Amino acid sequence: MLKPTAHNLKKLESLFEELGYVVRYEKGNFQSGYCLVEDRNIAVINKFFNTEARINCLLDILSGIEANTTDMSEKSARLYREIAKLQTSEEQNTP
I need a labelling partner for 23 at 20 to 30 A (CA). Which of 14, 44, 65, 86 fits? Predict the structure, then answer.
């Protein structure tokens, strides 16, 4: 998947911004590490998570979002397609 770097985290945050979501890092009791406020397109992630856990949360959220890549910048659209392709191949390899 994506390497757990601050640069990749920024790329994911930019992708979410283009999808119309606000990503916030806050304190809370999230059972899955994040909370998704769907009515307002807000993703709230546990602020105590390290970079890798934040990336994993964003990828988990992204798997449930249908996106139109025609409205995105080329970089974001390429990243979205790459992630979708990797998630699809992982699902096929899971028994």
Answer: 86
